[in-house]
Amino acid sequence: MKDIPPGDLVQSPGAAPATATRHATRISHIVEEVVAEFSDERITLGDLSAFFGDRAFGLLILLLCLPSLIPGMASVFATPMLILGAQMGLGLRVPKFPAFCARQSIRRSDLLRFSSASSVWLRRVERFVQPREGWFTSNAGDRLVGWLTVYVALMLILPGPFTNGPPAAGAIVMSLGVVGGDGRTIGIGVLLAALGSLFATGVLVFLGWAGIQALGWLL
């Protein structure tokens, strides 16, 4: 696929839908492109999928992870993220949202808020993202990223204290690597997402065990 500079992502009137490329790795640039493309206050996931084209997996996972860094927002976006991860794990090249997910929407103003809320550490990561081929940029690497995204999404769906941030942060780094075609960043993100998800699993297992023990004591 021919690379398109980030500034050329917004389609001109009458042109075919724009396709986001591996070089549009900065969160601020991605959000600006989306906000400039869609004039309505609410933007559906179906619209975003069509806009991003064949790079929709990495970019949509990235945008769906951002709200997870804000307490109370993770579970709203985790189900579409789980569907994306499963499709990526199965080897699909372009996501296909079921109707109930495609109709889900996010406000333009919220996109800007999520971007600014996480911009400090994200910009530090983004500086190091550059195209690097390797195993993690292969089809097998894409499948691994997909199934790990499913694991992260499950951790975001299940309620627990301090269990959203670590998996979501790892998934964001991982998806930044996917968008940038950077095998090293993907690998780092895979490690962080796996460790974060294992941490969340440990917290949830402990809470379940403690609840059973407390129930036994009461009875």
Summarize the topology.
Layout: H1 27-37, E1 42-44, H2 45-52, H3 56-65, H4 74-89, H5 99-102, E2 105-107, H6 108-117, H7 119-126, H8 139-157, H9 165-180, H10 183-218
Helix pairs in contact: 1-6, 2-3, 3-4, 3-9, 4-8, 8-9, 8-10, 9-10
Explain this structure to me?
There is one protein chain. The chain has one domain. It contains 10 helices and 2 strands; from the N terminus they run H-E-H-H-H-H-E-H-H-H-H-H. It has helices at residues 27-37, 45-52, 56-65, 74-89, 99-102, 108-117, 119-126, 139-157, 165-180, 183-218, and strands at residues 42-44, 105-107. The chain has a two-stranded antiparallel ribbon with strand order 1-2. The protein starts with 26 loop residues before the first helix and ends with a helix.
Tertiary shape: globular
Could you give the order of strands across the largest sheet? 1-2
**Element-level helix/strand string:** HEHHHHEHHHHH
Number of H- or I-type helical stretches: 10
The count of domains is: 1
Distance between the termini: 64 Å
User: Structural class of the helix and strand makeup?
Assistant: mainly alpha
What is the tally of beta strands?
Answer: 2
Helix content: 55-70%
Mean residue pLDDT: 76
How much of the residues is beta strand, in percent? under 5%
Radius of gyration: 18 Å
* Biggest beta sheet attributes: 2 strands, antiparallel
Give the low-pLDDT segments. 1-24
